[in-house]
Design brief:
By secondary structure, the chain is mainly alpha-helical. It has four domains: 3-70, Arc Repressor Mutant, subunit A; 142-208; 219-268, no CATH class; 288-343, Arc Repressor Mutant, subunit A (Orthogonal Bundle). Helices cover 53% and strands 10% of the residues. The chain contains 17 helices and eleven strands. It has helices at 3-13, 19-29, 39-46, 50-64, 67-70, 74-86, 93-103, 111-121, 143-163, 169-180, 185-192, 219-230, 236-245, 255-262, 288-296, 305-315, 320-327, and strands at residues 90-92, 127-129, 138-140, 198-200, 206-208, 234-235, 268-272, 275-278, 303-304, 333-335, 340-343. The strands form four sheets. The chain has a three-stranded antiparallel sheet. A three-stranded antiparallel sheet has the order 6-8-7. It has a three-stranded antiparallel sheet with strand order 9-11-10. Helix 7 (93-103) crosses helix 8 (111-121) and helix 15 (288-296) crosses helix 16. The longest helix is centred in the middle third of the chain and has 21 residues, at 143-163. The termini are far apart.
Length: 344
Amino acid sequence: MPGQNLKNILYELIKVLNPRAREVIEKHFGLRSVLCQTLEAIGQNLGVTRERVRQIEALGLRQLANKNVLEPLKPVFETIEKHLTDYGGVRREDYFLREISQLVSLKEKNNENLIDFALALGQGRFVHFKETPKWRAAWALDNSVYNNAIGLGESLRKKLAEQNLPIPREEVLKTAASLGGEMNDRALFSCIELCREIAQNPFGEWGFIGSPEVSPKGVKDKAYLIFKKEKKPLHFTQVAELINQAVFEGRQAHPQTVHNELIKDPRFVLVGRGTYALADWGYEPGTVRDVLVSVLKNTEGGLAREEIIKIVQAKRLVKENTILLNLQNKKVFKKIDNEHFTLL
């Protein structure tokens, strides 16, 4: 249904109202403006109380609720109902208004206001739920559908709390399906998206919105996510490039800024010239000599040269010759025989 038709239908519908009721509804729902005025502001403009404005609006909406009056909106209601059904019967409000605007090809600056008014006229078909501290505002086909969605979202929230780490999309679906029974992927995510405490990071992982792995705030958090995704050491210029390629909020990352931030954060270890890795991967900070000392200090009888090289290269990106050169430091290391070394 063309958006221009919807706007014209709504304008035509309110012509049955008296001028004052029409003015109140137009201003409160923002039918001719992006701004929706409060009942109190409208009352001040008309010289009446807020309660009187509310009564005028209620009478006008009751007049418009006549089945014959709403007949031109029937195709719109059917489109909205089908869309909600496709999403399991419930949809968070901001997504829903935007999606319906697209479905009816509405391109007005106040298109969401027009959709909101159409929904208000279809209150017998659709139910609106206000935003709460834990749940986003939503539209649903009925109360039971909404309550089931909230129950599923709460169960999933508890599961995420137990894991304390973001989980990939496939695992979210598996977990949600085990909690919510027969629902398609779209419906499951529609339920999940109602929860204000759960969000998705740029790599499709879901977790608590306050987690730096879900909502990274700065370069360091963004870099940490990049390393987790790439699963290998990276030069700081590569990290900056990958941050800029990902869909992160905020400014572009500059290589030197990335380098300066990584070198100060204990989550990252400088393992080569400008190359970093995660400390979680077993890499250790410090010079090659420091790593050698760490490797040998808890050994009795020393270690063979090849074993030392293998262990050190697992902790640092360093050439074999560099390791052997450091082992020649007689103030720190002692050569037991041709193959074995220990600390002095």
